[in-house]
Amino acid sequence: MEEKNYNIELIRTLSFVFVIVIHVANYYCRGYAEISRGEYWFALILDAMARVSVPCFFMMSGALLLGEKPNLDKNVRRLFRFFKVLLVWSVIYYFFNVYYMHSKVNLKAVLFEPVEAHLWYLYALLPIYLVLPFFQIMCWGMKKKYDDAFIAMCLVVVVAQYISSLFHEEPYYDVPLLGDRAYTFYFFAGYFIQKYRNKIPWRFPVVASIFAGSTAFEIVLTALVSFKKGDHYERLLEYGCPFVVISGVAFFMMLYKVHGGQIEFPRGMKKWMDRLGGCSFGIYLIHILFLDIFKKYVDPGDLSAYLVIPVLSVGLGLISYLCVYGLNKTPLRKVLF
Question: N or C: which end of the chain has fewer CB within 10 A?
Fold first, then answer.
């Protein structure tokens, strides 16, 4: 059995924590008119810094899967698992939203749009997994010259799509292999970083500076536009934004190259990381239930962002972990996760 890469596990652990931070901080960012300027800056900084998490999840999948030998049967099982999880949690959130949140939800549209917003990730992941074996065959046959050309083409397309979207335009045809979002790019980026991990010349301080600089631009530009508009401007925090792309890739590279890509933790810490990693997917699925309950009773202006964002993020992570850990001990885990 191949030994687990704890650089990847470190990225996974930080990423699922950051996802929770995004959802809590963004609640305050969207409450721009209800909070102070200082609270907005605080929420925006945490929101923007945590945005690397979603690119990292796609890059982890690419790093772990694209280099594997194609296996259609295994991929069909993977597809079935994620499709089943999507249907089950769509039904759960349907009943939760209709009967607890008293929201209008169309369950018939579940094949086309998420019942709960955060489930978009599964809608983005399933098409990639659908064509994964063909991507794997393509990657196996590509030499460095074509790798370089492919990743350059991907970057140009992602930037062009984002810029055109700012003008409310879109290409008449999507580019094959990539679609109309940046997620497939991240998937391939993770694979190429893994493939050339020993040949990437940048040192940790350089990559960390790129991450910090790009994130700082993202924060400052978002704040300036938001202050001018008098409302939170979210376009610069989208995952196709070049600043988010640079920050996400730099963050992944930064942690993937720690200790030469072979980071070691004490046995006790490895045990906890394995346990948290095993619950991370379930935490992503379930934590919105508890966050929505909070949102139902507390508006952004009711409690200070300085207090709520860190405390609620930790609280949501803890209660979600306990729920998932408990459910993993029951037969329901085969249905839910």
Answer: N
